Q: What sequence folds into this?
């Protein structure tokens, strides 16, 4: 307890000057937004983000949760995390007690740099400070709460920065603007408008300490969503950072309301963003950024799906910032290393279609896909996930059909919770119509809160009478969830159980409802580079690849990257037809995605 009082007390004796009182020498928002984005970022396409910290000791949470939010779960009274701590570490164990247990005894920054280099990444982004306030460098603004003074007793930012730069990679830093437990402002607990003392006395001087010492090429801020850019002093900080680092510097888009600057950072999306700014899809290999030992194997993206996701981001003019969550000992889990190696091997063959490429006039080719199954009830929280293959994470629909058999007679209160839209029919009557109801957070906040809406309706049912029921659901972007509940006449409130649903009235009817999910799924992506067109196929074209493109010149040649020789082609009925029948199985360069190079092609 004494140590904690000394720690927080020291913060109030650090000399400071109010930034709001200092002369503002920063650039205007207009000039900052007009500043060119560095070419290296647009060309690199692939970056690696690293979430490693005190939270890597418990490395635990719900199967769909962010493990690096462990402290917030404890502060909010999460039964799962509180019971885990009591069971494993003891009754009076606190989050601060995890710090000495973070030993990093097997950490080798050069080994990490080699793994990242082999993945094909062009830059690294290390989380220098997450929302728990723990610093991975010797920050004087976090005494006894940094990696030099406690835990690893190493300057992790400095050592890793040196190692990755030796490999020719760009070095970036993630920095959380707020902190959950700082006495000047407890993020999520204190009113957002009271944040000024924290910003001016703590955050801004610590920010300048970090950036001055390590001069990262890329700066990724986070946690901005409850405050404005003015409250964060974003314009001053960005301007100062650009002047210090120079033309290679780039910032992301999480600087508070009104900033409207930086490369875009959607999280766990379907990777089809259309924007006039640089962007990168940000996601972990599983559902969490920090290592979560409670995740299932099915939560991890496969190497094949990872390659497809990455190619899709590039075809849309973006890139991928893929996260690794090392264990507390400093080792990157083998399944994460395997995914990085698979991606790197694919890039070693197909890199010319990726690095430095630009979107073509068409992103790719899509087809309508569907998934049919029996769902026992309607109660799903997919978060950022697909309902199942081949449905994609965003922009999908679902329809459930069957019969509902109420257990008692009387008036029922039906509750539909959905993100984004829902319609409910009973016995042919539209009971609920919330098709245009959408409730989304911003891109950085989307997995933090339950953002779905509740909608109510009343309906009189007769006991054991079979009523036709149909439910339609649509998902746009970010979170996806839907739940159908009722409050019975006897006041029992519950998710409508499978026992109340039948697929048919006859005895052959199963419990549950017939479900049909639909979406479009991309099966081919286009990129262009150095006057060539690249068609990247996610499915092998058995005998011929048909592309609805303009006629190439007579001198155009078609090749399969990783295979010697050319492929015959013809153009007829407005389509380029490439003959792939001569490609033997053992000539296929990999089995995840195949790149056809059409050279030259300047249409």
A:
């Amino acid at each position: 307890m004494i140590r904690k009082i000394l720690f927080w007390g020291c913060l109030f004796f650090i000399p400071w000057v109010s930034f709001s009182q200092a002369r503002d020498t920063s650039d205007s928002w207009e000039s900052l937004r007009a500043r060119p984005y560095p070419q290296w970022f647009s060309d690199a396409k692939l970056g690696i983000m690293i979430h490693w910290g005190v939270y890597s000791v418990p490395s635990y949470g719900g199967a769909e949760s962010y493990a690096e939010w462990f402290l917030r779960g404890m502060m909010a009274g999460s039964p799962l995390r509180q019971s885990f701590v009591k069971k494993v570490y003891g009754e009076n164990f606190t989050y601060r007690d995890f710090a000495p247990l973070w030993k990093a005894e097997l950490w080798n920054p050069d080994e990490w740099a080699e793994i990242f280099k082999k993945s094909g990444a062009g830059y690294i982004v290390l989380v220098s400070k997450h929302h728990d306030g723990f610093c991975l460098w010797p920050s004087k603004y976090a005494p006894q709460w940094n990696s030099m003074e406690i835990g690893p007793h190493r300057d992790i930012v400095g050592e890793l920065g040196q190692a990755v730069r030796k490999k020719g990679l760009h070095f970036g830093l993630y920095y959380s603007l707020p902190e959950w437990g700082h006495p000047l402002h407890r993020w999520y607990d204190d009113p957002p408008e009271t944040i000024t003392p924290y910003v001016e006395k703590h955050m801004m001087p610590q920010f300048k300490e970090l950036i001055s010492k390590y001069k990262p090429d890329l700066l990724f801020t986070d946690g901005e969503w409850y405050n404005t850019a003015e409250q964060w002093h974003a314009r001053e900080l960005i301007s100062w950072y650009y002047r210090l680092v120079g033309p290679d510097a780039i910032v992301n888009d999480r600087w508070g309301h009104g900033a409207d600057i930086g490369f875009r950072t959607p999280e766990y999306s379907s990777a089809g963003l259309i924007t006039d700014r640089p962007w990168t899809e940000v996601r972990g290999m599983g559902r969490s950024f920090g290592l979560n030992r409670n995740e299932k194997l099915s939560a991890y993206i496969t190497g094949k799906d990872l390659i497809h996701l990455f190619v899709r981001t590039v075809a849309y003019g973006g890139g991928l910032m893929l996260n690794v969550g090392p264990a507390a000992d400093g080792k990157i889990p083998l399944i994460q290393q395997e995914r990085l190696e698979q991606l790197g091997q694919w890039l070693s063959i197909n890199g010319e279609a990726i690095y430095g490429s630009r979107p073509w006039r068409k992103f790719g080719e899509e087809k309508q896909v569907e998934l049919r199954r029996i769902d026992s009830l309607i109660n799903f929280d997919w978060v950022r996930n697909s309902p199942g293959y081949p449905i994609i994470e965003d922009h999908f629909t679902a329809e459930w059909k069957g019969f509902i058999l109420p257990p008692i007679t009387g008036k029922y209160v039906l509750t539909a919770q959905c993100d984004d839209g829902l319609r409910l029919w009973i016995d042919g009557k539209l009971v609920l119509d919330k098709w245009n109801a959408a409730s989304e957070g911003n891109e950085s906040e989307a997995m933090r809160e339950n953002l779905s809406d509740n909608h109510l309706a009343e309906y009189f049912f007769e006991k054991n009478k079979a009523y036709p029921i149909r439910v339609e659901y649509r998902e746009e972007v970010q979170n996806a969830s839907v739940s159908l509940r009722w409050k019975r006449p006897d006041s029992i409130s519950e998710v409508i159980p499978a026992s109340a649903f039948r697929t048919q009235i006859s005895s052959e009817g199963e419990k549950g409802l017939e479900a049909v999910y639909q979406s479009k799924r991309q099966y081919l992506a286009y990129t262009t580079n150095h006057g060539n067109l690249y068609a990247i196929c996610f499915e092998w074209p058995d005998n011929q690849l048909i592309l609805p493109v303009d006629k190439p010149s007579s001198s155009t040649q078609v090749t399969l990257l990783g295979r010697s020789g050319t492929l015959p082609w013809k153009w007829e009925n407005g389509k380029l037809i490439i003959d792939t029948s001569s490609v033997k199985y053992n000539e296929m360069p990999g089995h995840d995605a195949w790149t056809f190079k059409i050279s030259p092609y300047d249409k």
